[in-house]
Amino acid sequence: MLVWISWSVDPIGSAGATAPNVKEAARLLQGSITRMRRAFDSDTAYGELQDRARIMQARMLDEGRTAVLRGEQWSATVGSIRVLLIPRGDHVRVPLRREPNGAA
């Protein structure tokens, strides 16, 4: 199932993309974290960001994947990393909108 991922790492930056599944969305996040290396003056600070990114990826592949497979969006924050996953495709649950006359 396609998934939209939006992520931010404060105060460095943010991005978003469509991925074919949550596993690939986690890879997109990791690629972004890797490219952020140049924003850090110390290996220690960047190492801490990498540790938080690993925690976020594990959560994405567990609770995030579960939510997306149910057709629900999911978000989490780990340290300065915030991720939002939104399912896209045929399996997304869209609530019926009721018209004022009661028709769906």
Summed up:
The chain is 39% helix and 27% strand. The chain has helices spanning 22-35, 43-69; strands at 2-9, 13-19, 74-78, 81-88.
Describe the structure.
With 104 residues, this protein is α+β, with helices and mostly antiparallel strands. Helix content is 39%, strand content 27%. The chain contains 2 helices and 4 strands, in the order E-E-H-H-E-E. The chain has helices spanning 22-35, 43-69; strands at residues 2-9, 13-19, 74-78, 81-88. It has a 4-stranded antiparallel β-sheet with strand order 2-1-4-3, with helices on one face. Strand 3 and strand 4 (81-88) form a beta hairpin. The longest helix has 27 residues, at 43-69. It is elongated.
